[in-house]
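The instructor's notes for this session suggest beginning with a concrete chain rather than abstract definitions. Hand out the sequence below and ask the class to guess, before any prediction is shown, which regions might be ordered.
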Amino acid sequence: GTITRDTTAGLYRTSSPSERLAPNTASFKLTGSVKRFAVASGASATVSVYVRESVVSDGTDYNGARARLVLKANPAAGIAADTVLATATISSEGAFELLSGTTAAVTDDAVLEVCVDCDGTTGWVNVDDWSVA
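After discussion, reveal the predicted structure:
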């Protein structure tokens, strides 16, 4: 698949650009840009991002599985495997939907990584407006 900047009006949430994930296979996930943030030992973090699936009126309908917000494994911090924090719903078809999830408490000071992934053979997913609390 391809990952590009999308400056098309309506395909970014608050200001241009958004990130466009255009997968080309249903067999493997296309992983968007990885976001990193620090978390103190014993603490957790709540991560939020907006996603939007393309629809026919955009020119191509997205046909893949719903986009997911994924926390990447970090064994040194006590996170043994990639963890899905949130999965989009039908609300993401043609409109931005908030995905939000809370990480497990880390076992040491750490930098955690999150991303959005998707799959499919037509269309795309726009990703925009990340935040961490």
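Then share the key points. The radius of gyration is 15 Å. The chain has a mean pLDDT of 97.
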